[in-house]
């Protein structure tokens, strides 16, 4: 028995255009044609279509499905196992993302309520990019320090945030002055400012040993969203993020007895 392209599309829940595409790709050429040249599909074609849709549902591209069909015994099992691993990784990532969303909802419910005017009064121009916050949550998902920082941030009162941001603003003014006056990033003044920033993190969020501070500063130089948490874009200068990173690295080396590239003049 043969079926028209419209009948097959209705059976499978796909569009006629999709069946035409599978035909052009060589995946599902119809077994026959009518006298008028219309495609006619056999029972075997329907079975093949079911296989194509199965692999498509798993996320296989058409090119890979074609390779599997060329030699299903040699390719299918290995490729299915690889796809299973990828899907498990994606499931784990989505679960972590759901946890981030749940935490964000909880913060909105239990956090300090601020009017727009109060928010500007407390945070000024410093903004929190949700995409960066989400990526940071995923990146540091297994970090005890990240969990502690989030818990302590959630517990801060409006007055805590006012004091915290006041400290940050004073530190930022000193950083900008040092940079504008040409102080070396590996000099005493810049390193002292880096140390002050490290202690600020420890005081308000979580313990911040020099190695952790280095990784935080690396993000400042690599991601503008991270540096915007420290210096609002309107106050930034070209090279300031890298300068801050170098100062943090120099200060970390001062604590650990190492030597940075900036200190060696490289």
Short description:
The protein has helices at residues 5-12, 16-24, 43-57, 62-70, 72-110, 116-123, 130-139, 144-155, 158-180, 188-204, 210-222, 224-227, 240-256, 261-264, and strands at 3-4, 32-33, 39-41. With 266 residues, it is mainly alpha-helical.
Describe this protein's structure.
- The chain is mostly helical and 266 residues long.
- The protein has two domains: 3-70, Multidrug-efflux Transporter Regulator, Chain: A, Domain 2 (Orthogonal Bundle); 114-264, Orthogonal Bundle (Globin-like), CATH 1.10.490.
- Helices cover 71% and strands 3% of the residues.
- It contains 14 helices and three strands.
- The chain has helices at 5-12, 16-24, 43-57, 62-70, 72-110, 116-123, 130-139, 144-155, 158-180, 188-204, 210-222, 224-227, 240-256, 261-264, and strands at 3-4, 32-33, 39-41.
- A three-stranded antiparallel β-sheet has the order 1-3-2.
- A hairpin with a 5-residue loop joins strand 2 (32-33) and strand 3 (39-41).
- Helix 9 packs antiparallel against helix 10, helix 10 (188-204) packs across helix 13 (240-256) and helix 11 (210-222) packs antiparallel against helix 13.
- The longest helix has 39 residues, at 72-110.
- The protein starts with a strand and ends with a helix.
């Amino acid at each position: 028995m043969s079926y028209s392209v419209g009948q097959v599309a209705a059976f499978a829940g796909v569009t006629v255009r999709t069946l035409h595409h599978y035909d052009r790709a060589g995946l599902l050429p119809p077994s026959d044609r009518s006298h008028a040249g219309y495609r006619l599909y056999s029972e075997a074609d329907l079975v093949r279509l079911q296989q194509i849709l199965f692999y498509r549902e798993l996320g296989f591209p058409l090119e890979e499905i074609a390779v599997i069909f060329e030699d299903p015994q040699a390719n299918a099992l290995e490729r299915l196992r690889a796809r299973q691993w990828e899907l498990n990784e994606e499931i784990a990532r989505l679960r972590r993302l759901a946890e981030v969303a749940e935490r964000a909802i909880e913060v909105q419910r239990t956090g300090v309520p601020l009017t727009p005017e109060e928010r500007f009064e407390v945070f000024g121009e410093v903004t929190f990019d949700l995409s960066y916050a989400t990526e940071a949550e995923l990146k540091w998902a297994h970090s005890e320090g990240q969990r502690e920082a989030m818990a302590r941030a959630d517990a801060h009162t409006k007055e805590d945030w006012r004091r915290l941001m006041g400290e940050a603003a004073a530190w930022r003014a000193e950083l900008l002055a040092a940079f504008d006056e040409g102080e070396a990033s590996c000099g005493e003044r810049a390193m002292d400012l880096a140390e002050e920033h490290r202690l600020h993190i420890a005081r308000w969020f979580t313990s911040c040993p020099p190695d952790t501070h280095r990784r935080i500063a690396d993000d400042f130089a690599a991601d503008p969203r991270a540096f915007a948490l420290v210096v609002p874009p309107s106050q930034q200068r070209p090279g300031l993020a890298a300068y801050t990173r170098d100062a943090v690295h120099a200060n970390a080396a001062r604590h650990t007895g190492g030597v940075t590239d900036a200190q060696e003049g490289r």
